[in-house]
Amino acid sequence: LFYKREPGYGVLCRLEEAGHEAVFVGGAVRDHLLNREATDIDIATSAEPEEVKKVFPHTFDVGIEHGTVLVVLKGEQVEVTTFRTDGKYTDHRRPDAVKFVKSLTEDLMRRDFTINALAMTKDGKLLDPFNGRLDMEKNLIRAVGDPVERFKEDALRMMRAIRFSSTLNFSIEKKTFQAIMSGGAQLSHVSVERLKLEFDKLFMGINPLNAFNYMEKSSLNLYLPLYPKDNTALIEILPFKSPKEGWAYLAIAGGFSTTNIVNAYKLSKQERKYISSVQDVYVRRLQNAYTIDDYYLFDIDVIKIAERIYNSFYKDEIAISEETIEMNKNSLRIHSIADISVDGTDLLDWTGLSGGRWTGEWISKIEKAVLYGDCQNEISSIKEWFINEFNSKR
Ligand code: ATP
Ligand code: MG
Prior knowledge:
Blueprint: H1 8-17, E1 22-25, H2 27-33, E2 42-45, H3 49-55, E3 59-63, E4 68-73, E5 76-82, E6 84-86, E7 98-100, H4 104-109, E8 119-120, E9 126-127, H5 132-137, E10 140-141, H6 147-153, H7 156-167, E11 171-172, H8 174-183, H9 192-204, H10 208-218, H11 234-237, H12 243-254, H13 258-265, H14 269-287, H15 292-297, H16 300-313, H17 322-330, H18 344-351, H19 357-371, H20 379-392
Parallel strand pairs: 2-5, 10-11
Antiparallel strand pairs: 1-2, 1-8, 3-4, 4-5, 6-7, 8-9
Bound molecules: adenosine-5'-triphosphate and magnesium ion.
């Protein structure tokens, strides 16, 4: 049972024993009712942060100014947040100040959507002042209160609504959707880091197409840093196996350079490397089919997603199947320079020369020779090839 799940259950019990009110809240309750694995467990409590810290020996002040304390119990972590209301949002993203309150209903009122404004006691009793359960049965994302006001407070909520349309495969309720349609310009108040995280989740959701459709129908895409003009091919590419695949898709579909997309969404170094590789493979594919070098240089996942993207754009071309890609990759004679049976010291032995830049250069030549089958990947064969080439180049 959800409410017996450690460590959240233990945290609730201890807070209650200490005389405080405490409940599971937000996404954890939503995902539990939907029979989905929750990504994180949130607990809301009437106890103020200092009181929470008295109940538990191990805590961290992760967001104490917003009332959040990270409790570590039996090696696991739970965020415990004091019931609060948010003050004014003059900057359209963060409340100027938060006020701790004693009523759970007031706390639930500040939450974005009815399906996220649910709470559950440790005994499994649902607290649902905004009929989130009913919206859940109708597969609806509906703002708590007036959506226009709620999006004015925090514009990220528009992006969250669209992200949930992918992760939950829900529809966006009409008034909530209209508020996105009219409020898009406010997205400029949201940091790209937060937008990026929503995209990561959107890509990995069960219905990204739903989100792309809402994005375009609401025109929210017009206020994003970068967004492709045409996403009709997306259906052929899905599902994405990682958020990185989604970013590579956005780059290629939009005709954006790696640098542009990386800068626009502040992507990481690893994401940059991955996207740039997919773009490279894609360009090679435009020129002709993959060569031995391509199979050698690029990770198999990079080649697969590049091929999926290519096929979605060039439907009348014959696709290179995943099996073929795997076969070609597996049948390479070597997979990296570490696989070569000789190294620099062998070259010194064979030539009687002392080391220098030339050894590295010849190891690269040997790498190519082995890769292309000009010699076998065994010492005698490499030596024979090397002596021959080396002498003829002297
Ligand atoms: P996920 O499954 O991605 O974790 P989530 O709904 O749990 O989605 P969190 O960021 O973990 O999202 O936030 C937990 C809860 O906090 C939400 O369910 C919601 O009640 C509330 N919340 C989060 N972000 C906002 C926001 N921008 N505005 C209002 N309430 C929010
Ligand atoms: Mg969550």
